[in-house]
TrEMBL record:
Protein name: Tetratricopeptide repeat protein
UniProt keyword annotation of Repeat present: yes
Naturally occurring in which organism (per UniProt): Fibrella forsythiae
Chain segments annotated as coiled-coil in the UniProt record: none
Phylogenetic lineage: Bacteria, Pseudomonadati, Bacteroidota, Cytophagia, Cytophagales
Signal peptide range: 1-23
Length: 446
């Protein structure tokens, strides 16, 4: 273990001879700081600490692994995968790196690749219940229900009271139409956690399939008592009441389900059926129309971030540029003066004149990264997104650690439909210290 203090003679020798001892000690300090910050929930601070440890010792697998965990906790799963890749490259026998890379891949809906990682984690650590559980979850997503059931069985052999595995196994049995078998899992889960609504709701759903409608209503009553805004439980209770020909009670449940989730066609269909039975044919037809319309609507499409830089974002980023632009001696070509005048003109609302000045600053000094970036910001605000990307590319080429340029390029790429490229840019921006990137990652990259 590395000592925290060095004898004076050893310290002097390390300075004279240039041994890496002091640098290694400093890398360890950053690593330990990262671990401490992770434990306290400061994942942004942890990420920066692990990045410093990596800068000082780029061949330490544990630093990449832990930075990957920090990124994953910030919902930056693309960035986490890149760190796990490097950790595995440096230490191919690290079961946890495979396990967590699989988790991040599954968060990105790459379940087939995640299965390979979970399989490798199981090979390296065959008694790890979490690896079996995660593989089962990915198999379920791929509709490989028999394989998933085997994995959940193995999880529960290793951890008989694993609540997530009990619930998942019960749901998997439902998928396989093994409803009687699912009841035991949900019942045990209720014994372990009587104040959770999900097992009551799930057991109620299984009882409906077994035609035990009174038992289903009892379970769904409890689920709704615990979670009064669960639309699915109201839908199922309405269905059970309808099967018992309590159409008035069912109609009330469908009303509530629709008020909680107006996009679920099942609510309209169920209410339409009840209205028809209660003699309201006009209302029934309206509900059936709505059910048909909603059933043909794709509500699963991903949301793209607006690629255009807003005025507020433009102003804040230009302020960052201007704060960094300290007053220095004016160079002979006066590119700094053109740059500063361009920023001022844009603040006065004259973006066209600002672009002209920034063009001139770049012409006079082709290595002026801030000028490219600022021009890219203004181009994006003018909706010239392709031009903005080219300017961000130039800024990043000149300054590979330009966090704000990665941020802006990421937003624009995402807005243009390149979700993966955009999110990787945002990940790099956050890694380099621009923390607003993680809010965008959380909202649009998962």
């Amino acid at each position: 273990m590395i000592r925290r203090t060095l004898p004076v003679l050893a310290l002097l020798l390390s300075l004279v001879v240039g041994t890496p001892l002091l640098a290694q000690q400093t890398a360890v300090d950053y690593f330990e700081s990262g671990v401490t910050k992770s434990r306290s929930g400061d994942f942004t601070g942890a990420l920066q600490a692990f990045s410093m440890a990596i800068t000082m010792n780029p061949d330490n697998a544990a630093s990449y692994y832990n930075r990957g965990l920090a990124k994953a906790n910030l919902k930056d799963h693309r960035g986490a995968i890149l760190d796990y890749d490097r950790a595995i490259e440096l230490n191919p026998k690290d079961a946890l790196a495979y396990l967590n890379r699989g988790v991040s891949k599954s968060k990105q809906d790459d379940h087939r690749s995640a299965l390979l990682d979970f399989g490798r984690a199981i090979e390296l650590s065959p008694e790890d219940a979490q690896a079996y559980y995660n593989r089962g979850a990915s198999r379920s997503k791929l509709e490989q229900y028999r394989g998933a059931l085997q994995d959940f069985n193995r999880t529960l052999e290793l951890e008989p009271n694993n609540q997530a595995a009990l619930y998942s196994r019960g749901i998997t049995k439902q998928k396989l139409e093994e409803y009687s078998g699912s009841l035991a899992d949900f019942t045990k889960l209720i014994e372990l956690s009587p104040k959770k609504s999900q097992p009551y709701a799930a057991r109620g759903a299984s009882r409906i399939e077994l035609n035990d409608f009174n038992g289903a209503i009892t379970d769904l009553n409890k689920a709704i008592e615990i979670t009064p805004d669960d639309a699915e439980s109201f839908l199922n209770r309405g269905f059970a009441k309808g099967k018992l020909e309590d159409f008035k009670g069912a109609n009330i449940d469908y009303d509530k389900a629709i008020s909680l989730n107006a996009t679920n066609y099942k609510g309209y269909y169920g209410r339409g059926f009840c209205r028809s039975k209660l003699g309201d044919q006009k209302g029934a037809v309206q509900d059936f129309n709505q059910a048909i319309e909603l059933n043909n609507t794709n509500t699963e499409s991903k949301t793209l971030f607006s690629g255009r830089i807003s005025r507020a974002t433009l102003g804040s980023l230009l302020n960052v540029v201007q704060e960094r632009n300290k007053l220095n001696e004016l160079s002979a070509e006066r590119s700094e003066a053109y740059f500063s005048r361009g920023i001022s003109k844009n603040k006065q609302g004259d973006s066209k004149a600002a672009i002209i000045d920034l063009n001139k600053a770049i012409e006079l000094n082709p290595t002026y990264a801030e000028a490219y970036f600022s021009r890219g910001l203004i181009k994006s605000a003018q909706n010239d997104q392709r031009g903005a990307i080219l300017d961000c590319n130039s800024a990043i080429k000149l300054n590979p650690r330009y966090a704000e340029a990665f941020y802006v390029r990421g937003i624009i790429r995402h807005g243009l439909g390149d979700e993966n490229g955009g999110c990787l840019d945002l990940s790099k921006s956050g890694e380099l210290g621009y923390t607003p990137a993680y809010k965008v990652i959380s909202d649009y990259c998962n």
